[in-house]
Write a structure and sequence with these properties.
It comes from Amycolatopsis samaneae. The chain is of the alpha+beta class and 125 residues long. Helices cover 26% and strands 38% of the residues. The protein has a 6-stranded antiparallel beta barrel.
């Protein structure tokens, strides 16, 4: 069970407008900067993100079919703002991991409660 689309719509309209001011510097959060596949318009999407040996891993709390995920996959990368730093990311890769091993232990437990099993690996340039 990933977070329902109704919650995603509410977050896009309300929650994201508040959190956009803190996700760039709070641990465990970041902003993915990506371009629309059809429009070419730049979008900024707040995400749960953690470092990995290759770069970063993003928990796909809305599932792998979210538009921002499709945009990054189609473009072959984008930009990630986390901990007050901008990172160019490339070669996004969808990973299904029921054990959530790429996540820190506390986060792994929380993601288990909402049954998040899909992640996006982003390699740093």
């Amino acid at each position: 069970m990933v977070i329902p689309k109704g919650v995603a719509r509410f977050n896009r309209v309300a929650t994201n407008r508040v959190t956009k001011h803190v996700v760039g510097w709070m641990p465990g959060f970041g902003t993915v900067v990506h371009k629309g596949r059809r429009s070419g318009k730049e979008y900024r999407t707040p995400v749960n993100v953690f470092r990995s040996p290759q770069g970063f891993v993003v928990a796909l709390t809305y599932g792998p079919d979210a538009d921002w995920v499709k945009n990054l996959l189609a473009a072959g990368g984008g930009e990630l703002v986390t901990r007050r730093r901008n990172h160019v990311v490339r070669d996004p890769e969808l990973v299904h991991d029921e054990s959530r091993q790429a996540m820190p232990p506390v986060v792994r437990q929380f993601l288990g409660l909402i049954d998040v099993q899909d992640f996006l690996l982003l390699r740093r340039e």
